Amino acid sequence: MKVNIKSVALIAAIVLFTTPNSHAQNDISLSGQVNIISTAVPFLNIGPDSRSGGMGNAGVALSPDINSQHWNPSKFAFIDKNYGVGISYTPWLRKLVNDINLYYLTGFYRLDKTQVISASLRYFTLGDITFKENEYDYGYKVKPNEFALDLAYSRMLSEHLSGSVAFRFIYSDLYQGYSQNGELEAGTSFAADLSFFYRTKTDLLNDDSELTAGIDISNIGQKITYDGTQKQFIPTNLRLGVGYSTDIDEYNSFTFTIDANKLLVPTPPLNTDENESYEEKYRDTSVPKAMLLSFSDAPGGLKEELHEISYAIGAEYWYAKQFAVRAGYFHEHETKGNRKLFTAGVGLKFNMLTIDASYIIPVVQSSPLANTIRFSLSVDLDQFNIN
Predict the structure, then answer these.
(1) Which one of 112, 188, 231, 364 has the fewest CB atoms closer than 10 angstroms to its CB?
(2) What percentage of the chain carries pLDDT values higher than 70?
(3) Hey, what CATH class is 10-384 in?
(4) Which residues contact 150 (CB under 8 A, 6 or more apart)?
(5) What is the DSSP annotation of 191-228?
(6) Does the predicted TM-score (pTM) go above 0.85?
(7) Where are the domains of the chain?
């Protein structure tokens, strides 16, 4: 894709558009109190895998799988395997362009009965972009890209509870040497995640059932800058969820889950000219303080704070633990992004391979997320008897 611009600041708009909530401004004017929270490196909060992608992007309380690293790495402590790797591919915003992609590689290794280490690499490419000073300029072509490298440690804390800490290195190269004033460079940041997972057997509806709950606070880390001066928050996020799964009989099983998400970054004022400037009041706030204030800083008070919570609901059916059908719904308030999405997905499990795919069906017309498909492949390395 080509972008004709006179100011490199417009690259920020391109990056923000890669996060799904940006299209809301096309549907509701500012007079309708649209007040979207934006951050740097929004690709960190894009669900990378097909299982959760088919269940409305719910995943913090799902049963452990190879992609737990993104949703809640503490689930790895309960996983019934010793080794595993997985890869996912998501062509992003295909309704708009054909060269934005998200790649995700993850794996885990069990140290002993209570401890697991895991890692992942997330790579996001924005395709080809051409900067031009004017219509006669041949332009400067770049291929912006971002990646995040994670390492997590998970441990059983009790028979029913596990916890995890994860560390993340973030690299964002949006300009690749292009600058009008020689001031722009790649941005870097370090962040951490803290998560917990709880599960227990229950006789609710069925004797062979399980209740689960999870919490994940992700991307707790330093702000990122591209010019050495203006610092932007990364998408620190709080995710809470509960789940219920049951085996109906030897061949049929169901899972139901629901997540709630909230960004733990400042809500921008509706009019940045009032009182203090946005730079002084919001972007200069420390990360810990911003996380605490994020529950009470919305200009619209409690009502707006509640609007900042998005919800994901998902269901999964397995037949003979070999074929899965999934469905879900994701809801975000009109003033905070207006992502309203139905999702669907399928999964096939072979001896050592699991293949999953998911599909997004937007409720909002002209959504850039329309026709988004995710593909995932996981490999059970236990089959190789690695020692």
Answers:
(1) 112
(2) 83
(3) mainly beta
(4) 69, 118, 119, 120, 121, 122, 166, 167, 168, 193
(5) EEEEEEEEEEEE-SSSSSEEEEEEEEEEEEE--EESSS
(6) yes
(7) 10-384
